[in-house]
Design brief:
There is one protein chain. By secondary structure, the chain is an alpha+beta fold. The protein has a single domain, classed as Nucleoside Triphosphate Pyrophosphohydrolase (Alpha-Beta Complex), CATH 3.90.79. It is 17% helix and 42% strand. A hairpin with a 4-residue loop joins strand 10 and strand 11. The two termini are 32 Å apart. 24% of the residues are buried.
């Protein structure tokens, strides 16, 4: 059961793959600290669906608005599993797409603090998967995350990426533990 009134809202996110010098890359954003939800978190470009919009249309629109991706240069391949995100009241529909070349990227003022271009092969490195202890609503839990150096990829975005990596044959190791 969701902790808010009414049904969850539909949202979409784009996992865009494109060529890089060391193989395929994908785009992540670091959300602005001024946003009301998920400030400073690493995420895929995405957001709520507008009325009458398909999941794919929303993913492409949001990626264009947040990081400047040209929809005409992107081919949608399909969707991953929908993911309920109770903390924010959304059901997320991840969309996978490809581009033949690196897109011209620019961060939307007030929405995106930074753009991360992540080599896919780095995410397949078992040492990137880590875990730390955290307290959530008074309960201590293990939080798995991907170590991106200066950034941590966790939560719904990490779950989406994990599903995608597993489809590529990745077998997640037991996450290494941080003592922090």
């Amino acid at each position: 059961m969701f902790p808010w009134n009414g049904p969850p809202k539909d949202a979409s996110a784009l996992l865009l793959l494109y060529p890089g010098p060391e193989g395929p890359r994908f785009v992540l954003t670091v959300r602005s600290e001024t946003l009301p939800r998920h400030r400073g978190q690493v995420s895929l470009p995405g957001g709520a669906l507008d009325p009458g919009e398909t999941v794919e249309e929303a993913a492409l629109r949001e990626a264009h608005e947040e990081v400047g991706i040209d929809r005409a240069e992107v081919r949608v391949l399909g969707r991953l599993s929908p993911l309920d995100i109770p903390v924010s009241g959304f059901t997320l529909y991840p969309v996978i797409a490809v581009a033949d070349r690196r897109p011209a990227l620019h961060a939307a003022d007030g929405e995106v603090e930074r753009i991360l271009e992540v080599p896919l092969r780095e995410m397949l490195d078992p040492s990137r998967l880590r875990r730390r202890r955290a307290v959530r609503e008074g309960i201590e839990v293990d939080v798995p995350y991907f170590d991106l150096g200066a950034d941590e990829l966790w939560g719904a975005t990490a779950m989406v990426l994990s599903e995608f990596l597993c489809l590529l044959g990745w077998q997640p190791p037991a996450p290494a533990s941080d003592r922090s």
